[in-house]
Write a structure and sequence with these properties.
By secondary structure, this protein is α+β, with helices and mostly antiparallel strands. It has a single domain, classed as NADH Oxidase (3-Layer(aba) Sandwich), CATH 3.40.109.10. It contains nine helices and four strands, in the order H-H-E-H-H-E-H-H-H-E-H-E-H. The protein is globular. The protein starts with a helix and ends with a helix.
């Protein structure tokens, strides 16, 4: 299937088949794809947590507002978190990145207020989200990105240390009765000429 066809068929899943789990081989592929996600200066300020344990998934679901049912039914929940200390991040890039990347950070980002640096770090994690959703579609895995979660509660349940939760993605296989799928509810997007300009 072409990427354009994937884009047309992919949708935000509202109901999952709770009895169908994603094979370990595909989960390993998704982990490796996330590891290869792009980020500015190859900064990689992230940690991804794959939750398949039903007890933990249920705990997280209970602090996820209207997303509770989706998470409980899904095969896995993937939690995207960002490094929570500028100093820790700076140490990470000193140890792992080439001099040019570190110099870019020191010259253009380090002088900014801490809130702006942390906002930049968070944006790198959001880059990985688009990569991940596309990867799921290519593997015929359904997905639901969600910010409607209590991130502080996630941090406690997962005992995050040095990272904080930004958002999560439920993954699995759709319930055939999911009314949000494109075959039932056609996709709506603005017309191309309204959002794309060529110069």
């Amino acid at each position: 299937m072409s990427f354009l066809d994937l884009a047309k068929s992919r949708y935000t899943t509202k109901r999952y088949n709770a009895n169908e789990k994603i094979a370990d081989e595909k989960i390993q592929q998704l982990k490796e794809i996330l590891r290869l996600s792009p980020s500015s200066i190859n900064s990689q300020p992230w940690q991804f947590i794959f939750v398949s344990d039903e007890k933990t998934k249920s705990e997280l679901a209970s602090v996820s507002f209207f997303n509770e049912q989706k998470i409980n039914e899904a095969s896995h929940l993937v939690v995207f978190s960002v490094i929570d200390s500028v100093e820790k991040f700076e140490e990470q890039i000193r140890q792992n990145l080439p001099e040019g990347s570190v110099n870019y950070y020191n010259n253009f980002l380090k002088p900014l207020p801490e809130t702006e640096i942390k906002s930049w770090l968070q944006r790198q994690v959001y880059l990985s989200l688009g990569f991940f959703l596309s990867a799921c579609a290519s593997l015929e895995i359904d997905s639901t990105p969600m910010e409607g979660i209590k991130t502080e509660e996630y941090n406690k349940i997962l005992q995050l240390n040095g990272y904080k939760t930004l958002f999560a993605v439920a993954i699995g296989y759709r319930n055939p009765e999911d009314t949000n799928q494109p075959s039932v509810k056609p996709k709506f997007r603005l017309e191309l000429e309204n959002i794309i300009k060529s110069i």
